[in-house]
Amino acid sequence: MQIRNEEYQQFKPLLFSLGYRLLGSVSETEDIVQETFLRAFEITEQEIENKKAYLCKMMTNRCLDVLKSARYKREQYVGPWNPEPLLLEQSHDFDPTEVVLQKEGLSIAYLRMMEHLTPDERATLLLKEIFDFTYAEIANIIEKKEENCRKIFSRAKQKISLTEGESLNYEKNKSVITDFIQAFQTQNMDALLELISENVTLFSDGGGKVHAAVRPVVSLSNVLALLYGITKKTPEDFYLDIKNVNGQPAILIYMNKALQSIMSFYISNKKIHEIYLTVNPDKLP
């Protein structure tokens, strides 16, 4: 398939955006994007009329292969699994900063919810709801009948709420997180009760590489006890920074002059309902 340089620049962001939402992994997605283009260059026996659709089909099917093979790996994963955070405030030469086409379907909360779906359900839901493909186009991409795709989409919508109620207002969420940091540091329980749901759940992803809670931590008291326990062991050069991660404000935690973890949030009605603490060094930028 002949792909001009301007087409490569046009399609690469789309493929990355699709692959990252399917896999939740920056490194795996980057590898598959390059693999997709290399395979496309090798296609010479036919003229491809719709290059965008054909490349999306190649990308989607390769990601589905990875997802299906990753099922066993996910089952063997030590502790909760969080998507790899995508830090969108980096230097200009960091490629993924400019390849996210839209903010919908990008938050850590959304990507975690996708884990409740089968690979086909995940692909169908993303292609339809985020990338606005028709059922006919989706049927061609995932190689199923159009009617089947409609049923798969309906089933996926019934399985998960797709972060219904999630606030995606960056500045308002940043204000909530800033207030949370101040209330936490001053141990202002009244303020914390206003900011955090009583039934808050914290998912700590260490992947067996570093110390982390191996089960989700549930309830405000348990989550605060865990966080206060962590801060008691921090070195003197410990500091926090709020950055754009997956299109939403997140807390970057630095220790010993290096990024130690990233804390992302699910915020609804100005309250924190879920916290995603990623400490697995393989997932930190």
Automatic annotation (TrEMBL):
<dbReference type="InterPro" id="IPR014284">
    <property type="entry name" value="RNA_pol_sigma-70_dom"/>
</dbReference>
<dbReference type="GO" id="GO:0006352">
    <property type="term" value="P:DNA-templated transcription initiation"/>
</dbReference>
<dbReference type="InterPro" id="IPR013324">
    <property type="entry name" value="RNA_pol_sigma_r3/r4-like"/>
</dbReference>
<dbReference type="Pfam" id="PF04542">
    <property type="entry name" value="Sigma70_r2"/>
</dbReference>
<dbReference type="InterPro" id="IPR032710">
    <property type="entry name" value="NTF2-like_dom_sf"/>
</dbReference>
<dbReference type="InterPro" id="IPR007627">
    <property type="entry name" value="RNA_pol_sigma70_r2"/>
</dbReference>
<dbReference type="GO" id="GO:0016987">
    <property type="term" value="F:sigma factor activity"/>
</dbReference>
<feature type="domain" description="RNA polymerase sigma factor 70 region 4 type 2">
    <location>
        <begin position="109"/>
        <end position="160"/>
    </location>
</feature>
<dbReference type="Pfam" id="PF08281">
    <property type="entry name" value="Sigma70_r4_2"/>
</dbReference>
<dbReference type="InterPro" id="IPR013325">
    <property type="entry name" value="RNA_pol_sigma_r2"/>
</dbReference>
<protein>
    <submittedName>
        <fullName>RNA polymerase sigma-70 factor, ECF subfamily</fullName>
    </submittedName>
</protein>
<dbReference type="GO" id="GO:0003677">
    <property type="term" value="F:DNA binding"/>
</dbReference>
<dbReference type="InterPro" id="IPR013249">
    <property type="entry name" value="RNA_pol_sigma70_r4_t2"/>
</dbReference>
<dbReference type="InterPro" id="IPR052704">
    <property type="entry name" value="ECF_Sigma-70_Domain"/>
</dbReference>
<feature type="domain" description="RNA polymerase sigma-70 region 2">
    <location>
        <begin position="8"/>
        <end position="71"/>
    </location>
</feature>
<comment type="subunit">
    <text>Interacts transiently with the RNA polymerase catalytic core formed by RpoA, RpoB, RpoC and RpoZ (2 alpha, 1 beta, 1 beta' and 1 omega subunit) to form the RNA polymerase holoenzyme that can initiate transcription.</text>
</comment>
<dbReference type="InterPro" id="IPR036388">
    <property type="entry name" value="WH-like_DNA-bd_sf"/>
</dbReference>
<dbReference type="InterPro" id="IPR014303">
    <property type="entry name" value="RNA_pol_sigma-70_ECF"/>
</dbReference>
